[in-house]
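Quick check before the chapter quiz. The format below is the same one you will see on the exam, so make sure you can read both the input and the output lines.
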Amino acid sequence: MAQYFEVHPETPQPRLIKQAVDILIAGGVIAYPTDSSYALGCRMGEKAALDRIREIRRLPDDHNFTVACKDLKDIGTYAKMENYAYRLLKSHTPGPYTFILRATSEVPRRLQHPKRKTIGIRVPDHPVARALTETLTEPLMSVTLQLPGESQPLDDPYEICERIGKRIDAVIAGGATGGGPSSVIDLTGEAAEVVRTGVGDTSVFESA
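Here is the expected output.
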C-alpha cells in the first residue's frame, strides 16, 4: 500500500519532501499535487516506473508525456523552442499549462511522441511540486492522474489512496488543486495552437 504523506500546501515540510524524493530515487511512482490537478510522477530514467504509469492510465504509445520542471531555466535542457515560444513560456510559467515542444536529446526516446519527437513541458505553480523538483534536483516525468474512462482527474488524496494505493508507492497529500487537467498548448508550429482547454485560460494563446 502506498505511503501517505500529508504535507503543508504552502510550506511543505522538508523532511516529508525528502522522504518522497527518496522513493522517487529508488524507482517509485508517486501521486502529487500541481496547480491544475493531482499527477502521477517518477524519475525520467526509470523505465519500470514509467511502464507502471502507462498501465495505470492505459496510455497509448503516442501519448505526450510531460516533464515537470522547477523553472524556466530547466526547460531549455529538455525542449527546443522558437523565439515566440520562449516569450509565451516566460509570460505563462509557472502556471496550469502544458506546452508541447520538440524534445532535445536529453529526453529519453520512450518519453517522446514516437513520430513527432515532441514532449510536454510544464512548470507547476504549486509549492509541493516545486519542492519535489528542487529536492530531486531534476524534473519529474509526469502525467495527469485521470483514470481510464473518467472525464476528470482524481483530486482527493484519500480517494487516490483507496483507488490506486496498491499500484503506486506514495501519495503526497498537499491540499486542493485547480480541480481539472492543465490546458495544453502546442508550440511546435509557427503559432500557438490550443490542444486542450483545462484549468488555464487559453484565450491569451488564440492570437499568439
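If your answer matched, good. The mean pLDDT is 92.
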